[in-house]
Specification:
Length: 426
């Protein structure tokens, strides 16, 4: 909710932060939005709302390098080769990094809105980016040249390469689009719910996660073969095991569902502290699943048993909505707790605090850096204007925001949300 163009989270300098082996990885100063396993031995890379990326040693559980460049949350990370990775941010830029270097060796620019996802082609020569400017761009890594794929009518949230080199993208506009190498759209599949993530298997099957909590499977013929419900709330992340047999789907309510791809059946559910899980990645052998969440931690799970590795994760560190159990408005708001606090003593997160929001003019909260477009608006936050924000969507009601695009289509849910906010933000 109500996020500005720039995120102003601060964390201390992180160099070789000690973490016991097999424990949670602690170091980020905000939600962990992106994870990628590096081809380099024993390494995983995480990206956060705190604008940093961290290279972690899987052998020692320590942070070996902190990468700082972006002027916004890091939303996506991709491994390019044994010695290089890419990070993408809400600042609209992609940074390419070589191992051990402290600055990017190349920066790819062109997107005009936050980048939500990255994918690297099987031959390692191209990288595709999905962004909220409603485009997909396919970049040549050798020289940074790109082609732009246009057709989506809303934010593009996910992208993947198919084995034949085609690109598949998914969007808030509820379409799956498959783009051939000559930039034409070979196939468009229309669904009835916004789509948040996509992966492609080695044999060409497409798996998509939706805002309705359903996972959709498109066979190698690019036709919908099955869909299953795995959560009663939006799914925001998908990852595929290296052998292509297992899928992990995670969402805003904190659970991660392990799915057998061949049968499209749920195998088990990993239950964490109940906070949103924004990212996930399988280990190289597929035995361990790493997840990044709203609490700023990277957690490890035994895929075969569903048990956490290391510290007990069930103990909630903080759940700001625990005292509102059973409140429908609080349930609706749970998607927002990663970015916003409710009380005056909690301060700002990635987005501004909502304490005292009603009656306040947009972009006037002291101590938070809002974008120029928001500062020029005359909106005063009331129950009616907050409801309108979610009825028509932030990109339409507050152009220039980098708040994640989300609409609440149910009038009853919108009413429950604003009633809850009126009580909780006094």
């Amino acid at each position: 909710m109500l996020r500005s163009v720039r995120i102003s989270c601060a964390i201390g300098i992180l160099l070789a932060l000690p973490v016991a082996a097999h424990a949670q990885f602690r170091g980020h100063g905000g939600p962990v939005r992106a994870l990628a396993i590096s081809p380099a031995p024993n390494e995983i890379v995480s990206g956060s709302f705190d604008q940093s990326a961290i290279r972690w040693s899987l052998r020692t559980g320590t942070a070996e390098q902190v990468l700082r460049f972006h002027e916004g949350a890091i939303n996506a990370i991709a491994s390019i080769s044994r010695d290089s990775i890419a990070t993408a941010s809400e600042d609209g830029r992609i940074a390419l990094w070589r191992r051990g270097e402290t600055t990017p060796y190349r920066v790819l620019t062109g997107h005009e809105a936050p980048i939500a996802a990255l994918a690297v082609s099987a031959d390692g020569k191209q990288i595709a980016s999905a962004a909220w400017d409603r485009t997909v761009r396919v970049w040549r890594l050798a020289d940074g040249q790109h082609r732009t794929l246009e057709g989506h009518t809303q934010n593009v949230n996910g992208v993947a390469f198919l084995p034949d080199g085609a690109v598949v993208s998914v969007s808030h506009d509820a379409t799956i689009r498959i783009w051939s190498a000559d930039n034409s759209v070979a196939d468009v599949t229309q669904l009835d719910t916004p789509l948040n993530a996509v992966v492609s298997s080695p044999d060409g099957e497409i798996v998509v996660a939706s805002a309705s909590g359903r996972v959709y499977f498109l066979g190698r013929d690019r036709k919908l073969r099955r869909d299953i419900e795995v959560a009663g709330a939006p799914l925001v992340s998908l990852c595929l095991s290296p052998d292509g047999k297992t899928i992990a789907a995670s969402g805003i309510r904190g659970a991660v569902t392990i799915i057998d791809r061949a049968t499209a059946q749920t195998v088990r559910t990993l239950v964490g502290p109940g906070l949103p899980v924004w990212s996930s990645a399988f280990s190289a052998d597929g035995a361990v699943l790493y997840t990044g969440g709203a609490d700023g931690l990277v957690r490890r799970w035994n895929v075969a048993t569903g048990e956490p590795l290391g510290d007990v994760v069930m103990a909630r560190e903080t759940d700001p909505l625990a005292s509102h159990a059973g409140d429908r408005g609080a349930d609706v708001f749970r998607a927002c707790v990663a970015c916003h606090t409710l009380r005056g003593d909690e301060g700002n997160r990635a987005g501004p605090s909502l304490h005292g929001i009603f009656g306040r003019r947009i972009a006037t909260l002291p101590g938070y850096e809002f974008s120029a477009p928001l500062r020029q608006m005359d909106i005063v936050w009331t129950k009616e204007t907050v409801a309108k924000l979610f009825e028509i969507g932030p990109s339409i009601y507050t152009p220039g925001t980098k708040m994640p695009e989300q609409r609440i289509t149910s009038a009853d849910d919108r009413a429950a949300l604003v009633d809850f906010l009126e009580r909780a933000t006094r």
